[in-house]
Input
Amino acid sequence: MFHDSHKLSDQQHHTIGPFLGPTRIAYFSMEIALRPEMHTYSGGLGVLAGDTARSASDLELPMVFVTLISRQGYLRQELDQSGWQHDHPDPWSPAESATPLRAKVSIPISGREVWIRPWLHLIRSPLGHDVPVLLLDTDLPENAPEDRGITDRLYGGDARYRLRQEIVLGIGGLRLLSALGFAGIHTYHLNEGHAALLALDLLRRHPRPADQVTNGDLRYDVAPVRESCIFTTHTPVEAGHDRFDWGLVSELLPDYIDLDQVRLLAGGESLNLTHLALSLSGFVNGVAQRHARTTREMFPGYRIRAITNGVHLPTWTHPAFAALYNEHYPSWGLEPETLAHADQLPGELLWKAHDQARHELIAAVAERTGVVLDPARPLIGYARRMTSYKRPELLFSDIERLRRINARFPFQVVLSGKAHPLDEPGKRHIQNIFGHIHELADELPIAFIPNYDASVARLLVPGVDVWLNTPVPPMEASGTSGMKAAINGVLNLSVLDGWWIEACVDGVTGWAIGRDGAKGAALASAEDLYSRLENDVLPLFHQDCDGWIRMMQQSISKIASTFNTQRMMRRYAAEAYVR
Output
């Protein structure tokens, strides 16, 4: 269940006051998943940010969160009969979930003053502690028409649009905190490089004395900026690191700062926001142990630690499982480590809770897709952003082999996911999957649920039996969907990448596809996938129900007790926020 997040009434405007003095940490993220009906997120990065805010509320951390309002959302997916994705805006109403604040700031972009107003949304812990979230909005009558839409579409538009958004988030967000009266903030947490211009704005405030600067030296003091900034990088995919042409930067931020100085920190060929954040942050971390190692190889010379991601357990636990945990481990939501004893949960109660989640998913699939699933067959689930490196078609690499496996051990598949509007290969993957669904319709039930979002995930993830993940290593930074699956007794079948290297005890918490460090063509990994399905996963489900339930117990006790945002935020608090 999501926390009791809500807007302020007109009589409660003054409640921003209690946050001003105690708040010490500001967390900046381009996207944050606050509630399913608030379309301020696109995928894993935003979901993580939302779970981070909920655990900050649980742990009563003195934090404020800053993001864009994204009035038009990210993308509403429409699939035609062939399975081709058509992209539409996904608008939402801020007035139903947030309250506009009176403070406004302006920042110069392209020589024009662009005004920004924050909206306030509160996340409330069951213990009663509130954490404020500020949603930045440029849709104001004071702004030129071309500037009013800067905060409209998450990850929309071209490089010019994206850079203007990142100026609003980093520079505008920093200045709004000051205008609102958040005077006690000493730590700025940059969730990915989108907010890196915040660090650049801080740098402008610390010029070095002229007599301490020689030719070629940086004319600013980076030490106080590094003391203030924390940077969490999320992607080992080269295209995921924002770069902007220096000419565009000069056009949008004329006379803001000497760009020759910025080149010393952010790369010579273009403004690389990841490089800028690395250069100006005193604490840098990847989001899994393997990801931190990969990032060190991509960006040598920086000290990059590892804090593995987690999920907010109460948010992603199916109500049937939550009731079971409430009965046996009353403090599990705030103290997930108590779930280490979940291997002692009665198997029949565990299966009963899982069966409820399965039947809810089966009903939803029938309603939304027309595909009728068989409650007796195991369900394999796959849902994530549809892009090539995640290999969404790996399961369908050899259709005849799939048919033979299904003839021996019948199963069924439920998939979901969106492709980025500019990702034509990703859209082609979805269309190809529709072709596979049609080809196998008479023997292997397969459903694709359109318009994947948090509300679909809350049905799909706990309702399947096996959670499949097939990225090309080492391109999975962390991945959190498998953690959400595990808290609901769903077993992971995944390539050894991201978080799964740390969590996989093969044949105990789930199964690995391939070997760690193994290299080879995609077909070799497909063979590994088919072998695990045919020899381990499906026979266990069909022939040894007690053995399957024992693995469910082990998965919950070993994964849910560790891979959660309570543990993650305690580590940030102890290692990054207090330095």
User: Anything to note?
Assistant: The two ends are 34 Å apart (CA to CA). The first strand starts at residue 25 and ends at 29.
